[in-house]
Amino acid sequence: MSASKIVYLISGANRGIGLGLVESLSKNESNIVIGGARDPSKPSGLNDLAKERSNVHVVKLTSANVEDNKGAAKFIEEKFGKLDVVFANAYEFCFSASAKSEAIRGISNDYTSALTVSLEQVNDHYQVNTVGPLVLFQAVGPLLLKSANPKWVLISTGAASLAVPFPLPVTA
Fold it and tell me: What secondary structure does DSSP assign to 126-139, as a single string?
């Protein structure tokens, strides 16, 4: 691998901001862009990009799943030997049973009040949004240390704020 190649990892890359980052960064052929997705076997824009562009790779990466994160790190180590930039972008925003379908998991306008939200829902949200970036960092941190110019970028949402302008049971 050429020393001038920059190796990127983007979690939550199957849609939204993550997919946009993969699309944008992979236009530069000197970049290697690895997109993480919960289920890489499903048809997606990320898989389409990987078929079109030789510098795009897809890995199984589920937020807060230690084994998935270690597996992605192993793939990166074996194939590229280092990691220069990580965009920790995976998130979950889902607080109602009606929003649990795979089609809208992660994006919901159905808010549950703090009086009725289940502890399971809050824990799921916490695991993905708070523990997930830590699990990812612990898995890929050693690869970042092999870079001459490592960067760790956390992508967040209003749901991670204590000053959210809409009612969420996770706000103060």
Answer: HIIIIIHHHHHHHH
Give the CATH number, domain containing residue 139.
3.40.50.720
Considering just the CA atoms, what is the radius of gyration of the chain in Å? 17
Determine phi and psi for 163, rounding to 5 degrees: -115, 35
Does residue 157 carry a pLDDT above 70? no
C-alpha span between 32 and 55 (Å, rounded): 5
Kindly state whether residue 53 falls inside one of the protein's structural domains.
yes
Cα(171)–Cα(26) distance, integer angstroms: 36
- Counting Cα atoms < 13 Å in the Cβ hemisphere of 160 gives 15
Residue 83, domain extent: 6-92+133-153
Which pTM value belongs to this model? 0.82
